[in-house]
Amino acid sequence: MTDLFEASGIHPPPESQVGAPLADRLRPRSLEEVVGQDHLLGPGGPIRRMVEAGRLGSMILWGPPGTGKTTIARLLAQAAGYQFQSLSAVFSGVADLKKAFEAARMRRAAGQSTLLFVDEIHRFNRAQQDGFLPFVEEGIVTLVGATTENPSFELNGALLSRSQVFVLKRLDDEALNQLLIRAETQEEKALPLTLEARQALLALADGDGRYLLTMTETLFALPDGDLDVQGLAATLQRRAPAYDKSREEHYNLISALHKSVRGSDPDAALYWLARMLNGGEDPLFLARRIVRMAVEDVGEADPLSLLVANAAKDAYDFLGSPEGELALAQAVVHLATAPKSVGVYEAFKAAKKAAAETGSLMPPAHIRNAPTKLMKSLGYGKGYQYDPDTPEGFSGTNFFPEGMERRTFYAPKGEGHEAKVKERLERWAALRAKTQGDGE
To answer: How far apart, in whole angstroms, are the C-alpha atoms of residue 155 and residue 142?
Structure first.
């Protein structure tokens, strides 16, 4: 197959492609051949407009693995007539950067523009990232950085302000199927899969085009005969899910789990729980978040939820994986299907604010402890009523500090168990008003 980038002098001669991986042999030859990124490269797309204008701006390509970041950078250089120069932040240091910038400066003096592609740019430290700034500002290089991590977390603000961030989408089934068709055309034979197995192969790729073609190359090497889903599973080694507990994906998934529980969707909640466990998340981290959900989102609407959440944590401690994971799943379902209330959560925040504002006020004398004669002579404990001994079991006594007006922090809305709590509080409020009114 003719080398995809022969015209730009980027790749070695075609004969060196013999024996190259299928993914490399199928690299697109133009931006039109890139699949799954029409929002950027299609008619009216922002990158397409740059190419049509004949002038590229520095950019950050942010997206999952196997979505075409490197390919797009190469094709941009080709389409705009720029010299393509590539660095990997994994293998390059300060000396490599200096060489790249000096070469770009010499090209510029000769009238040649340089597109400097930096793969995994987030792996450069802050000082190294700062080193790009003068060369980008002077136009010595047009920087195209590729990252799988959220640029707002991993890249310097100064570098981001000089670049446009373009988000690449994971490849959907339609885009992945286009790659399979190209692979079959290249190999001049159909994949040895049933229709159901073909769909399963797309699911295994999980939006990663390179990984799909790597698996496809393995399948082309098999003897004749179509594999079913079970045969496909037995033939391929499934990779670990794309999940890094220290990166943004960790926070995205735990947020999805928490919000699914809060939104009373047990099915979605179970899905995100399974995703995190499959990705190697610490089950005790999940157990702690589940306890937090019980007190933050369910609260007094279903007080049993806190017991269930704590019991799930204890069960996992006792059983370990995988058996203990079922206890976490049970707790997630219980919380997702429980009535929700943030009454206590909001009340405590309001009470903390009030305490910070009035933290020097003393309790009223009648509820202070009076262990000595002096304290009793000062009126400590005088007039205190023991509520369980009153006719209503409620005295209506003022428990707020002297000089502070009564405030209402906890206002249940009446969901689940809180319906009874609300009724009880309203009855006590009426009794309190009557008692304190009589005292006046």
So the answer is: 17
Best CA proximity match to 137, nearest among 164, 162, 112: 162
CA distance 116 to 137: 14
pTM for this model (two decimals):
0.66
Placement of tokens 């446009």 in the chain: 164
Quickly tell me which residue has 């157990």 as its tokens: 287
Question: Whole-angstrom Cα distance, residue 259 to residue 251?
Answer: 12
Q: Which residues of 236-265 are buried (b: 16+ CB within 10 A; e: fewer)?
A: beeeeebbeeeeebbeebbebbbebbbeee
Start-to-end C-alpha separation, the chain: 98
Element (H, E) at 118: strand 114-119
Report the DSSP beta bridge partners of residue 167. 62
Q: Going edge to edge, which strands form the sheet with 164-167?
A: 83-88, 114-119, 142-147, 59-62, 164-167
Nearest CA to 303 among 337, 277, 341? 341
The tens digit of pLDDT for each residue in 39-61 reads 999 999 999 999 998 889 999 99
Instruction: Calculate ∠ Cα 112-116-121, nearest 5°.
Output: 170
Q: What is the mean pLDDT of the chain?
A: 86
Q: Angle 27-32-35 (CA atoms, 0-180°, nearest 5)?
A: 60
How many CB atoms lie under 10 A from the CB of residue 295?
16
C-alpha dihedral sign at 37, 75, 214, 145:
negative
Give, as one character, the DSSP assignment of residue 391.
T
Contact call for residues 84 and 74 (beta carbons, < 8 A):
yes
371: its two tokens: 């262990």
Q: What is the pLDDT of residue 438?
A: 52
The contacts of residue 331 (CB under 8 Å, 6+ apart) are 290, 294, 308, 309, 311, 312
